[in-house]
Amino acid sequence: MDIELRGITKRFGEVVANEGVNLSIRAGEVLGLLGENGAGKSTLMNVLCGLYRPNEGEILIDGQAVTFTSPADAIAAGIGMVHQHFMLVPVFTVAENVVLGVEPVGRLDRLDRAKASAEVATISRKYGLEVDPDALVETLPVGVQQRVEIIKVLFRAADVLILDEPTAVLTPQEVKDFFEVVRALRDAGKALVFITHKLNEILDISDRIAVIRGGRITGEGLPRDLTPKSLAEMMVGRPVSFDVAKAPFNPGRALLEVRDLTVLRDDDAVAVDHLNLTVHSGEIVGIAGVQGNGQSALIEALTGLRRAAGGTVTYDGTDITHASVRARHRAGIAHIPEDRQKSGLIPKFTVAENMVLDTYYDERFSRGPSVMWDHVAEKAAQAVLDFDVRTPSVYTAAGHLSGGNQQKLVVARELSRETLLAIAGQPTRGLDVGSIEYIHKRLVEARDTGDGVLIVSSELDEILSLADRILVMFKGRIVAEFDTGAGPVDKGAIGLAMAGAAA
Ligand SMILES: Nc1ncnc2c1ncn2[C@@H]1O[C@H](COP(=O)(O)OP(=O)(O)O)[C@@H](O)[C@H]1O
Ligand SMILES: [Mg+2]
């Protein structure tokens, strides 16, 4: 089955999410759809799977124009989508979820469980989608839940499978297995659309690649004719450099020493479990791990946002285990938080106000009870220049900037003052390659000038390109350590540790 999208335009009020998109999807082929956050990938595929009606354009299946008024129409035509956020019922079994809405019915109108399980097992075997049909979905790791979503689509006899950023929730090993499934589906004659913002993945799995930027297709081609560089340029709209230039590794004294740290979540479950780590001056320590292994709680405890339930945190020789956020900040700890909207910025405040959120009270900006706004604006203007924050003015509300520029604003505020230690959680999540490149550069600069830098990221490639030392966090503990100075590190070994193999 071949599909042709012709001139698809989709608007949300003022926002043009897709504009005049032409794209073909063919049986027996993996089409890689690459684009940065907000480029319009999900919208385009939601049009194809019947969730949205396009404002303009048409969809042709094997040359025939079709109109979908609901996802049920698209499924009936053989098009199924696995969404970024799964839509399974946690308290149902795998088989119950798969057959939901199209149940095989037995005697007395009861769900025929045995039949449902058997059908799931058949599909599972055929494509290597390993899963227990009778397991409760809520007990399954996300990687397995994803297989359930795929089986669900296959159960509905889809010939076209749209996979929206499927690897975001997977460890590197799981990605490998997942790619095997994708290839099996393709070899069985299915058409697949694989959505991602990751350059190496798209080159690995695709038979053909299309790049989307600002709602338009900006490039198309075969993997053999494309490189990460050329793809990045199509994705961002300008040349991008990948090499993070770093001065030779020359660590100094221990700046941050974490001993036996235990941190509880809000529900009192253990998030960080007797964890030990050290960050030296002049080094970048990267914590790799699949999301949800205690990384957020660790950062919160280190920056004073969450109480330590046990252990000690020493910074530059002083015990700060129970110090306030402000005390840590004043002592020279910069914090680039994981969630810039929630704890990095106040979206309604201007760029200038956000620039001094945590320093407005100091003598540079305040005289007695009054803030000297002209000084603030001056400092903000300089930081905006130094850190390449694209904003109409320093009086623009921070919430109006793009994600990348909001993050650069946070980085500008945190790194444009005297610091000794920078702690960054997912510093580039959801950002375009250009902003990523920039933020990486500034973090490396902080390290080269003698700061200690601690980065937590679930993007292994980010950790690999930045860190001097890599720690792997699993279930609240550091389970493995890799030294990047001692030659190339074994990505497979890191991936295994991320999956808990070393624990
Ligand atoms: N339901 C919606 N309402 C309003 N705007 C939306 C909606 N869905 C997406 N958008 C906007 O459309 C653009 C494209 O979004 P999306 O398709 O989700 O991008 P991607 O999947 O490539 O990250 C973005 O600017 C986004 O904010
Ligand atoms: Mg999306």
From TrEMBL:
Gene Ontology MF annotations: ATP binding
InterPro entries assigned to the protein according to its UniProt record, in alphabetical order: AAA+_ATPase (IPR003593), ABC_carbohydrate_import_ATPase (IPR050107), ABC_transporter-like_ATP-bd (IPR003439), ABC_transporter-like_CS (IPR017871), P-loop_NTPase (IPR027417)
SMART domains per UniProt: AAA (SM00382)
Domain ABC transporter: residue ranges: 3-239, 256-500
Stated name of the protein: ABC transporter ATP-binding protein
Signal sequence segment: none
Keywords: ATP-binding, Nucleotide-binding
